[in-house]
Specification:
two-stranded antiparallel sheet, single chain
Length: about 170
Amino acid sequence: MTIPPTRVAGKSAAAITLALIASAFLIEQRAVAQESPVNMCRSAGDDNMLRPLPPPLLAAAKAAFGQDVGALDEANTAVWRCMGGRAYVCLPGGERHCGRADSQPMATPEASAYCRGHPGSESVPTSATGRDTIFAWGCDGAAVKNKGGVRSVDPRGFVKEYWRPLE
């Protein structure tokens, strides 16, 4: 049985059309990926999605935090997001957590366990409280105690002090 030439041509045309649509989609995605965070945020307004900072912008990010730009990190872990039409950057590490802030005034089970094991301790380490908390924690005897807020939260729910505008 032979396939009529019109069906072969129709399938070829459909395959070509599908390939063109896929190519257009990939080109658009590549253009979005190459768009700078500053330009993207101007049109996006607010976007809580954390994205890896493009390596060419790491020096600007470190300058925003007042860090030495001479020795750039080999493993760039900086992230950015949009707030109010501006790009904001965070350099995670140490006590700095770039995700959403934990503004719940209740202690974690790990903090309670820490105080039971270290009664009267002046502070509870972040390994027990979580790096995302905005509160200072201590031990009142064997009970965990909220010592009050030490960080503020921005309008999008992130620790304000950990984020800087990316210019």
